[in-house]
Amino acid sequence: MSIFKERILSEGKVYPNNVLKVDSFLNHQIDPRLMEELADSFYQEFKDARVTKVMTVEASGIAPAILAAYKLDVPMLFAKKQKPSTIEKKEFLSAMVHSYTKDTDNRVIVSSKYLSPEDRVLIIDDFLANGEAAMGLVSLVEQANATVVGVGICVEKSFQEGRKRLEDHGVHVYSEARIASLDNETVTFIDGH
Amino acid sequence: MSIFKERILSEGKVYPNNVLKVDSFLNHQIDPRLMEELADSFYQEFKDARVTKVMTVEASGIAPAILAAYKLDVPMLFAKKQKPSTIEKKEFLSAMVHSYTKDTDNRVIVSSKYLSPEDRVLIIDDFLANGEAAMGLVSLVEQANATVVGVGICVEKSFQEGRKRLEDHGVHVYSEARIASLDNETVTFIDGH
C-alpha cells in the first residue's frame, strides 16, 4: 500500500454523508514530502503525454499541482472561484461548478491568455467525487480548443459518479487512492486494501 | 538582479492605483522553477530559525509556501478565507483581513489543531502591500501562543505600510523583490535596479 493510502487510513476521519476529512496532510495542513510522492505518481502516469500545462482550481489543488508541474517541467495554471478585480471580463473563460458539500454554485475562471489550442493540459485536483470541479476544468480547456490529456486525482470517491462522467466524456482518469466505501466510518479502498 | 526581479520587469504589468499584475508566473499561471528559486531564498534566510511550520493564506501564497516548506522539511498550513463545512466552529482561530484591492473584509481561519505553543512559524505570501493579510496570519499564530519567526514575501510594495506595520510589531520581514515605486507605469526596485 502506498504511503499516501496509509496516511488516509491512519489520519483520515470519516463523517456522515460520506465526508472524508484529510486536513492534517492534504487540504489544510499539507505534507510537502507526500505532495512530492503524489507528483512522482502523476509524472509516471503522464510523462509520455506531452503535457504543456498543469491546471487545477484553487485552493486545495494547488499544492499537488505545483509539484506535478515541477516534475513535468511545465507551467501550472489555477482557476479562480470568482472574478478578481485584476482580470478584465472579456479576457477570461468561465464554467459553473456546483459544490455538493457546501450546496453552492461557483463560477471558475481562467484568463484566456494562458490556454491556447496547442496546449495539452493535465488537470490535477485533491478530490474527485461527483466530478463537478473536474468537468468545469475540462470545459475551460475545451473552450480554449486545447486538449485534456488526463485528470490526476489524489483521492477518488469511487462510489460517486465523477470518474464515470469524465470517462464518458473521453477523459483518462488516474487516481492515487480510490475509495470504494466510507460506510461504517471506515475507509475501504477499491483494490481491497 | 535575481531572475525573479527580471521576470517582474519583463512580464509584470502596471495598472492605475498601484496595481502590479504578475499573473503570468506568480499568481494565476505559476512557474514552478521560479517558485523553487524563491523557496531557496526563503530557506537561506530562515534555515537557522528552527522553523516548525510554514503558513500562508489561500490561494496565491500556496505555491511558494509548499516549496519553502519542502526545503525546510516542515508541514505547510494554509489559512482559509471562510469557514468550510468540514471545520467545526470551536475548532478554529480566526482574524479579519481587509482587502484594499477588492474593498472587502474576509475572515481568515485555521484549525486550532495545527498550531501549538511550541510552533515556530514562518509566514509566506505572494504580496505584501498594506500588510493586512500578513498581520491577520500573525494574529492567528499569536492566538495559538506560537512564535512568528518571520515573514517571507515574494513581492513587497515598499511604498505601502505593510513592512513597517510588521516591523513595528517586532516581526522580521524578508522580501525577494522590494518595489520602491510603480509610478509612470514603471517598476522601480528599492535597490535602484
What does this structure look like?
2 copies of one chain form a homodimer. Chain A contains 5 helices and 11 strands, in the order αβββαβαββββαβαββ. The model of chain A has no long low-confidence stretch (mean pLDDT 94).
Number of H/I helices of chain A: 5
Strand fraction of chain A equals 25-35%
Secondary structure: number of strands of chain A? 11
- Could you spell the SSE succession of chain A in H and E letters? HEEEHEHEEEEHEHEE
Helix content percent band of chain A: 25-40%
Judging from the principal axes of the Cα atoms, what is the shape of chain A? globular
Q: Specify the biggest β-sheet of chain A.
A: 6 strands, mixed
Given the helix and strand composition of chain A, which structural class is it?
alpha/beta
Unreliable residue stretches of chain A: none
Mean pLDDT of chain A: 94
Through-space gap between termini of chain A: 7 Å
Strand order of the largest sheet of chain A: 5-4-8-9-10-11
Write the layout of secondary structure elements.
The structure is a homodimer of 193-residue chains.
Chain A: H1 3-11, E1 13-15, E2 19-21, E3 29-30, H2 32-46, E4 53-57, H3 62-72, E5 76-79, E6 92-99, E7 104-111, E8 120-128, H4 132-143, E9 147-157, H5 162-168, E10 173-181, E11 188-189
Parallel strand pairs in A: 4-5, 4-8, 8-9, 9-10
Antiparallel strand pairs in A: 1-2, 6-7, 10-11
